[in-house]
């Protein structure tokens, strides 16, 4: 496991391609925090502005480790936390002061909320015309559903994702991963990066409109084209593929093994590995289209064979025949896998309250340049006073006054 220090600035190394950029993170829950976390991973300084008392709602999501939520820890690594009540005039002034020197602002309130606070894109970009203002919402800033409430399961239902997930012939099932929320975060970050590139040429910022709905629908990929071409809805197929056979999870003595024959040349190799050369020699199974027509014959026969050996045995056999395969791992097994460790996808950081904890690592690598170690997710309000002192030149007296009146968190300690 890679050993990382708590404060990236003091740890040395290359900050990352976004080093020197400042991001104001006004987001909560998942999509927005994920977008801001990606930017932090890439080296940006991310200041997370949270509401007084409870902060980001996910700080209250159980289970907890000594009062810190698993959910918040997962989505806020590398950020600095400020507690600011934007509903109070002095709180809004703090945001305006920070906007003057910021590069990016990300928010995921319902459309119209920031405008009602007097802190919408037009108002903030009047202060700083170079600001990239990213609004992440359920359905986007326009369209008949623009103001509707949305969560991940709503997005999965509305985009057709649930209709193709689950067992063959079964009821629609939500993906275990919150793909709707995550697509909003991924495409929000991508939109910000694109706008930053444009700003380098024009000198001007712009509004980025990213939604869970658009992002998730864009991931339908070949399933959308299948619907366009056939005029029919794709159906849930469990772990199987609508066009590729075999491409599924098969039972073993002690678990399950995935086998993926995405090209015809893998088929005779697989048949040799399974000890059924007759299938490999059958001219009626030589092509993907033929195997798809005989799916109901092929897959039960493969399953009958795979359930006679352990996962480890099948891994060894399939590897020897160069067949794409994988054990079906639990989350703990996946995190502990040697490849995850080698890729630094699990790292240790020093949390302000919890001490050393494990978190996920950066998903993007830059060969030849080792980035500054990740910083831990922040404790609520951990950096409020420090940022007010250093960035806005607030006096100790003024900070105490704001604390006492609840403009910044009464629990601010530093």
Automatic annotation (TrEMBL):
Q: What InterPro entries does the entry give?
A: CoA-transferase_III_domain (IPR050483), CoA-Trfase_fam_III (IPR003673), CoA-Trfase_III_dom3_sf (IPR044855), CoA-Trfase_III_dom_1_sf (IPR023606)
The organism's place on the tree of life at top rank: Bacteria
Q: Please give one Gene Ontology molecular function term for this protein.
A: transferase activity
Q: Which UniProt keywords apply?
A: Transferase
Task: Give the protein name, as stated in the record.
Answer: CaiB/BaiF CoA transferase family protein
Which organism is this protein's natural source? Teichococcus globiformis
């Amino acid at each position: 496991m890679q050993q990382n220090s708590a404060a990236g600035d003091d740890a040395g190394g290359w900050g990352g391609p976004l080093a020197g950029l400042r991001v104001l993170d006004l987001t909560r829950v998942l999509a927005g925090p994920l977008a801001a976390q990606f930017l932090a991973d890439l080296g940006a300084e991310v200041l997370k502005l949270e509401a007084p008392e409870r902060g980001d709602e996910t700080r209250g999501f159980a289970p907890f480790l000594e009062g810190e939520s698993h959910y918040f820890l997962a989505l806020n690594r590398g950020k600095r936390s400020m507690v600011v009540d934007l509903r109070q005039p002095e709180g809004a002034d703090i945001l305006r002061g920070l906007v003057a020197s910021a590069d990016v602002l990300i928010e995921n309130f319902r459309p119209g909320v920031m405008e009602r606070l007097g802190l919408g894109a037009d108002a903030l970009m009047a202060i700083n015309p170079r600001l990239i203002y990213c609004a992440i919402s359920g359905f986007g800033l326009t369209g008949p559903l623009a103001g509707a409430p949305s969560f991940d399961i709503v997005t999965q239902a509305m985009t057709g994702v649930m209709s193709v997930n689950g067992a063959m012939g079964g009821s629609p099932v939500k993906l275990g991963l919150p793909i709707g929320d995550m697509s909003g975060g991924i495409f929000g970050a991508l939109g910000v990066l694109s706008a930053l590139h444009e700003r380098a040429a024009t000198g001007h910022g712009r509004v980025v409109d990213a939604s869970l709905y658009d992002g998730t629908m864009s991931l339908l990929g070949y399933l959308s084209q299948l619907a366009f071409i056939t005029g029919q809805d794709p159906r849930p197929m469990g772990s199987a593929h609508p066009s590729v056979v075999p491409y599924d999870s098969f039972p073993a003595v002690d678990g399950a093994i995935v086998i993926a024959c995405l090209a015809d040349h893998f088929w005779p190799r697989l048949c040799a590995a399974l000890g059924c050369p007759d299938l490999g020699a059958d001219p009626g199974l030589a092509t993907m289209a033929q195997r798809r027509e005989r799916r109901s014959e092929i897959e039960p026969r493969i399953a009958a064979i795979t359930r006679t050996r352990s996962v480890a045995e099948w891994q060894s056999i399939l590897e020897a025949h160069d067949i794409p395969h994988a054990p079906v791992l639990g989350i703990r097994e996946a995190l502990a896998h040697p490849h995850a460790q080698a890729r630094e996808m699990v790292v240790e950081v020093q949390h302000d309250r919890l001490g050393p904890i494990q978190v996920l690592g950066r998903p993007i690598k830059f060969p030849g340049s080792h980035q500054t170690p990740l910083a831990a997710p922040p404790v609520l309000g951990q950096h409020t006073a420090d940022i007010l002192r250093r960035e806005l030149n607030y006096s100790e007296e003024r900070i105490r006054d704001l604390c006492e009146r609840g403009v910044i968190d009464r629990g601010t300690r530093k």
